[in-house]
Amino acid sequence: MTNSEFRFAHHPDDVKKYTTEELREHFLIPELFKKDEINLTYTMYDRYIAGGAFPVSKKIKLDTIDDLKADYFLERRELGVINVGGKGKVTVDGEVYELGHKEALYVGRGNKEVFFEAADGEQPYFYLNSAPAHKEYPSKKVTLAEAEVVELGDSKTSNKRKINKLLVNSIVDTCQLQMGMTELKEGSVWNTMPPHTHTRRMEVYFYFNLEEGQTISHFMGQPHETRHIFMKNHQAVISPEWSIHAGAGTSNYTFIWGMAGENLDYGDMDKVSPEELK
Question: Angle at the Cα of 134 (from 130 to 137), degrees rounded to 5?
Fold first, then answer.
């Protein structure tokens, strides 16, 4: 079963007036993984889709959704998959890809059938991102060993982290979708600090590997008018192109960033120094 919900885009001046409840309603994706279901959120920010596939007792199929008005899900789209659980399988038009923990798969436009299932008695959690695509590129699996890795931050500023660029244009051909995973070192809690904006791209952040009983505060909004959303493990948040991207947890964690928009330049960002934030 494939379920979906639709989210409109928002003007930053309107977001200034949102209550906590309204902010969470419009930007937080609270539950991605439901037993033997695929749950998707379609946002009008670059028509991005984020969601999760959680096969427990059977193989589940990625069906098209009404908002796409397409005969099949990838008729005009590309798909990124990162497994944040145990071993699982993704079958793309009959070709089987086995994904272990923290391994990724790019699925190109034009593939008609995509199935997800568990493997070897383990429990996979498939995190999904999708963006419109103008061209067909071949599907490709990417392991952590094949990722482009960057070490950033410092323990003194509580943001020592390793960035694993998985589905980026230096690793795999995509139209506009990019995905990667940032792992915070023990004792570090800040991601993407100092924060940044990039009006040429939007992002979705998905948080996982957060210890039970801990929380993450995701910061968003314009640099001079910030807002925050407290989040739990296995939740995602939509981060508009006008918004900063930053977060801090009560312990270390891992997050997946996914983005789409004007370009494929990972370094294209407008940094905001901490003393500028309000």
Answer: 75
Q: What is the 3-state secondary structure (H, E, C) of the chain?
A: CEEEEEECCCCHHHHCCCCHHHHHHHHEECCCCCCCEEEEEEECCCCCEEEEEECCCCCEECCCCHHHCCCCCCCCEEEEEEECCCCEEEEECCEEEEECCCCEEEECCCCCCEEEEECCCCCCCEEEEEEECCCCCCCEEECHHHCEEEEECCHHHCCCEEEEEEECCCCCCCCCCEEEEEEECCCCCEECCCCEECCCEEEEEEEECCCCCCCEEEEEEECCEEEEEEECCCEEEEECCCCCCEEEECCCCEEEEEEEECCCCCCCCEECCHHHCC
The gap between the terminal CA atoms of the chain, to the nearest Å, is: 43
Q: Could you report the per-residue pLDDT of 169-219, keeping only the tens digit for each?
A: 999 999 999 999 999 999 999 988 888 888 899 999 999 999 999 999 999
pLDDT, residue 193, reads: 81
Q: Which two tokens stand for residue 37?
A: 């279901």
pLDDT at 266: 84
Look at the chain and count its residues. 278
Strands across the sheet with 88-92, in order? Answer: 60-61, 114-118, 88-92, 95-99
How many CB atoms lie under 10 A from the CB of residue 249?
Answer: 21
Radius of gyration in angstroms for the set of CA atoms belonging to the chain, rounded to a whole number: 18
Q: Which residues are annotated as a binding site for Zn(2+)?
A: 196, 198, 203, 245
Locate the domains of the chain by residue range: 2-276
Known binding site: residues? 196, 198, 203, 245
Note the CATH architecture for domain 2-276.
Sandwich (2.60)
pLDDT of residue 58: 96
Q: What global pTM score does this model have?
A: 0.96
